[in-house]
Amino acid sequence: MNGNKDWWPTAKHEQLEMAKKWVQELEKSGDLWGIKPELIAEFASLTEQAKTAQEEATNGNTRTSVSITKRDTALDRLKKAARGMKKRHFYVPPLAESDIIALGLKLRDNAPTPSGIPSAQFTAETFLQGRHELGIQLVCVSGDLNDRANKSYRVYYKVLEDGESQPPNPEELTKSFSAKRKKNVIRFNYEDSRKFVCIAVQVENGDKKGPWGPMIQAAIP
């Protein structure tokens, strides 16, 4: 296999080589893995069809736009069959590690990826969305935007009453919601129109919280 992140090779000749390897392993051990003989025969037939189509598409005497299209169609069918075989019979329930390796597949890494306390700071930029609605775009102002610890974002806000000053710190913002996306909409009550709202963002990773981002103030449409 090549270094492609996906398990299915990119190069067409490598796809065929992998499929032929699977046919050999399926014919040798498929019954022990509980795979029905007709499924093995079907996969072997698709592999043979793709092999024939590939030969016609690469032969100078038979290479035409039609033969190339037939080759691509045959390889696409083979890929879909391979995905189904892998998903339904190789990993659920899982084969032995030696069998997975013999099929040219990678062993599954079930160890959770460690992620620590978020350190990035985010703020919000606002834009008009609709009547009594304020769109917000979360923007990283410091730290690593792609840190694994940046699992979600908690957006805190408070509508200021007439004459009310901005809170001295974000802990006094009274409402909040969790967001996975960086673009969101806050919907306000009809009577909040033309008031000001204070907004602050904090990155979350489960119960781990990052530092507060800068607090902003915006007018509610």
Structural class comes to alpha+beta
Tell me the overall shape. elongated
CATH homologous superfamily grouping of the largest domain: Immunoglobulins
Extract low-pLDDT stretches.
none
Number of helices: 4
CATH class of the largest domain: Mainly Beta
Q: What is the element string, with H for helices and E for strands?
A: HHHHEEEEEEEE
Strand content: 25-35%
Residue-averaged pLDDT, rounded?
A: 89
What's the domain count? 2
For the sheet with most strands, the description reads: 5 strands, antiparallel
The end-to-end span amounts to 56 Å
Name the helicity range: 25-40%
Instruction: Classify the fold: give the CATH topology of the largest domain.
Output: Immunoglobulin-like
CATH architecture of the largest domain: Sandwich
Count of extended strands: 8
Rounded to the nearest angstrom, the radius of gyration is 28 Å
Oligomer: single chain
Name the features.
single chain; 221 residues; alpha+beta; Immunoglobulin-like; 2 domains; five-stranded antiparallel sheet; three-stranded antiparallel sheet; 4 helices; 8 strands
Q: Can you walk me through this structure?
A:
Strand 1 and strand 2 (133-142) form a beta hairpin. Strands 3, 4, 6, 7 and 8 form a five-stranded antiparallel β-sheet that branches. A three-stranded antiparallel β-sheet has the order 1-2-5, with no helix packed on it. Helix content is 33%, strand content 26%. The model has no long low-confidence stretch (mean pLDDT 89). The protein folds into two domains: 12-102, no CATH class; 121-219, Immunoglobulins (Immunoglobulin-like, Sandwich). It is of the alpha+beta class. The chain has helices spanning 12-29, 37-58, 65-90, 97-102, and strands at 121-130, 133-142, 152-160, 175-179, 183-187, 196-205, 208-212, 216-219.
